[in-house]
Amino acid sequence: MSGGRAPDAAAAAGPRDPARAARRSLLVWLAACAAGGGLALLAAGRTWAAVTFSAQAGPLSAGRVSLSGGELVASLTPSVLAALAAAVAVLATRGIARRVIGAVISLCGLAAAAGAWSGTRAETIAGTAREHASTAMVPSGGAVAHSVTWAWPLAAVAGGLVLVAAGVVAAVAGGRWPGMSSRYDRPAGGGPARTPGRERAPRSERAMWDALDEGADPTIEPPRDRSS
């Protein structure tokens, strides 16, 4: 008895395993996108460099400017936000559109990573610091000395690279993932399944109101009593 039931249970669970694995893969992918984008956005708001200007009038005229990642790389935050928006769009698309969106995510992640790395160059830091010093009325007439907090730029680069990898995965393997619209798709026959040889019996208006009072869908026929 037990030996005959085991194959039946395995056959019933078999068709569900690929769909379950696809949903799990999609959830892991979404978590990776959120982690990579969140890391890059967190790093963009932190101080990356501190610049000190030594004015010619003496050390009392020296000025100091602190620069965040978003100030050094203006395109960092928009690139990450665009990648995250595209990641959400993956859920609502399929086929070629999903592959194209995956490529967009990779490009946005690449732009974020490349921009974060370029933001650590000395000329970029010095030029941005002079612009902020002139706006904040900080003395900036002498030599420039700067220090970089490397943890945050590297974190932004890592977050961008995670988005690049996520976009590649979506473009290559995203065709096996389910979409938000799949649960609303109509059956292959174009309508609700019906038992052969049976037509839907018309329901009275009173019966429909009673079904609404009970919280049921009045358009669904209740099961018939087979004992009669």
Automatic annotation (TrEMBL):
It comes from the Bacteria. Pfam families: Trp_oprn_chp (PF09534). The keyword Cell division does not apply. Residues 196-208 have a biased composition (Basic and acidic residues). Residues 181-228 are annotated as: Disordered. InterPro entries: TAT_signal, Trp_biosyn_TM_oprn/chp, Trp_synth-assoc_CHP. The chain crosses the membrane at residues 73-93, 100-118, 150-173. PROSITE patterns: TAT (PS51318). Keywords: Membrane, Transmembrane, Transmembrane helix. NCBIfam families: trp_oprn_chp. This is TIGR02234 family membrane protein. The lineage of its organism: Bacteria, Bacillati, Actinomycetota, Actinomycetes, Streptosporangiales.
